[in-house]
Amino acid sequence: MKVIKNRLEGVAFKATPNKGGIIKPIFIVMHYDAASNSTSAINWMTNPTSQVSAHIHISREGVVTQLVDFNVKAWHAGKSEWKGYKNLNDHSIGIELQNTGSQEYTDIQIVKAMEVCLAISGAYPIQEIVGHSDIAPGRKGDPGKQFPWAKFKCLVK
């Protein structure tokens, strides 16, 4: 898996109107979508009334869908702060994993998420992979306690 012209090669692209502005990403923010299925999650993130999006969605079956080019701001972080940076949408790539918040992540989903993070880290100067809960403490709990952080923290040097 690799990034070519700000998109993952070989994955479906479903454009969302919920985006804006050019960014130079230095963080990856992991989320869960809180949806019961990937279709409803993607439909929500591509609906202009939702005012939310992410760069990538990964289903429980490991299907990767890109919604926003990596050099364009997606609306995934909301009010956020991390290591002196505010409004993390301006500095990060958002990855949504299909999960209600109480489920274990599937093995294929985690493998695909790791592949995506490695491809992004190889194409951009990513400093750290963080959770929504890290950048919006007290407001957000995702990606949750089931997320295997040890597998992800080592993907960025």
Please give the structural blueprint.
Elements: E1 3-4, E2 7-8, E3 12-13, E4 19-22, E5 27-32, H1 38-45, E6 56-58, E7 64-66, E8 72-74, E9 81-82, E10 85-86, E11 92-97, H2 107-123, E12 128-131, H3 132-135, H4 149-153
Unreliable sequence segments: none
Kindly state the number of beta strands.
Answer: 12
What is the string of helix and strand elements? EEEEEHEEEEEEHEHH
Helix coverage percent of residues?
10-25%
User: Assembly type of the shown chains?
Assistant: single chain
Mean pLDDT: 96
List the main descriptive attributes of the protein structure presented here.
12 strands; 6-stranded mixed beta sheet; globular; single chain; 157 residues; two-stranded antiparallel sheet; alpha/beta
What does the model show?
This protein has 157 residues and is of the alpha/beta class. The chain contains 4 helices and 12 strands; from the N terminus they run βββββαββββββαβαα. The protein has helices at 38-45, 107-123, 132-135, 149-153; strands at 3-4, 7-8, 12-13, 19-22, 27-32, 56-58, 64-66, 72-74, 81-82, 85-86, 92-97, 128-131. The strands form 4 sheets. The chain has a 6-stranded mixed sheet with strand order 3-7-6-11-5-12, with helices on both faces. Strands 1-2 form a two-stranded antiparallel ribbon. The protein has a two-stranded antiparallel sheet with strand order 4-8. Strand 6 (56-58) and strand 7 form a beta hairpin. The longest helix is centred in the C-terminal third of the chain and has 17 residues, at 107-123. It is globular, with a radius of gyration of 14 Å. The relative contact order is 0.24.
